[in-house]
Predict the 3D structure of the following.
Amino acid sequence: MIRSELIQKIAEENPHLYQRDVERIVNTIFEEVIDAMARGDRVELRGFGAFSVKQRDARTGRNPRTGEAVAVDEKHVPFFKTGKLLRDRLNGG
């Protein structure tokens, strides 16, 4: 499912809301999640999962084409851990 499909589905299930309002709500939720993660905060949606940021330390990597050593800077990467309810539904529980 992509963002526009999510907006369409929510709008169909809530005919009392204008589609532009649903779009604004969905975009606001995603922006708040992104802003929280950019601050290093953890975002938990009960039953769905938790978004967090993990730090990867600087390291020496290799260029796969030449085998030459390459310095890789430290970086922060998004991480998602599924919630129990989501895991159970995916596994037929």
User: Anything to note?
Assistant: Strands lie at 43-45, 49-56, 59-62, 69-72, 75-82.
